[in-house]
Each structure stands twice: as structure tokens, then as C-alpha cells.
């Protein structure tokens, strides 16, 4: 488990609900309607992770080049015919 950066105490409601403190929501950019993954670790810790939104995915795939790439049966392509794809493949 990573080192603890912040900690607050919250209550569990009769319906099993908890409120994520405002400072944490702001730090993680969590808004109403966002989806979270809840994981129970082997050592009994609950971990909340924010799932990417459709906007996050749009921004992520916006940088993927769109061009025809011909890949042969050995997995090779011509970087001169697909310069954007080649540049993208070699980005760090």
C-alpha cells in the first residue's frame, strides 16, 4: 500500500453510504455521477479508484493518429507511408 497522504474519519449511514470528504473529491476530480471502483485488499484495506469518464477517453484517443497503416505478416510497416503512426509508436 502507498504511504498515507491524507486521512479523515467518515461515518457509514444506515444504508451503507459514506461521504467522500470534499478535499478528496476536489483532489481526485470526482463529481456527481462519476463511477468508482471499490477494491478490498488482502490486508483488509478498502481502495477507491475513479474510472475514466467518456470525456477522459475522448481526450486520450484524440492523440492517436488516424491514417492507413499496412502491416505485413511479420508485423512490419513502412514508416514513410505512415509517418504519423511511426512517430506515435516511438513517443515516450
Q: Tell me about the largest β-sheet.
A: 2 strands, antiparallel
Give the class from helix and strand content and strand pairing. Answer: alpha+beta
Radius of gyration: 21 Å
Number of helices: 3
Beta content comes to 5-15%
End-to-end distance: 27 Å
Uncertain runs are: none
Average pLDDT metric:
89
Order of helices and strands: HEEHH
CATH architecture of the largest domain: Ribbon
Task: Give the tally of β-strands.
Answer: 2
Widest β-sheet, arrangement of strands: 1-2
CATH class of the largest domain: Mainly Beta
Helix content: 25-40%
CATH topology title of the largest domain:
Pemi-like Protein 1, Chain: D
Number of domains: 2
Global morphology: elongated
Biased composition (Basic and acidic residues): 72-81
Protein name: AbrB/MazE/SpoVT family DNA-binding domain-containing protein
Domain SpoVT-AbrB: 7-53
Region (Disordered): 72-92
Summary keywords:
92 residues, Pemi-like Protein 1, Chain: D, 2 domains, alpha+beta, 11% strand, single chain, two-stranded antiparallel ribbon
Structure in words:
- By secondary structure, the chain is an alpha+beta fold.
- The protein has 2 domains: 51 residues, Ribbon (Pemi-like Protein 1, Chain: D), CATH 2.10.260; 41 residues, no CATH class.
- Helices cover 25% and strands 11% of the residues.
- The chain is built from 3 helices and 2 strands.
- It has a two-stranded antiparallel ribbon with strand order 1-2.
- The longest helix has 9 residues.
- It is elongated and about 60 Å long.
- The relative contact order is 0.10.
- The mean pLDDT is 89.
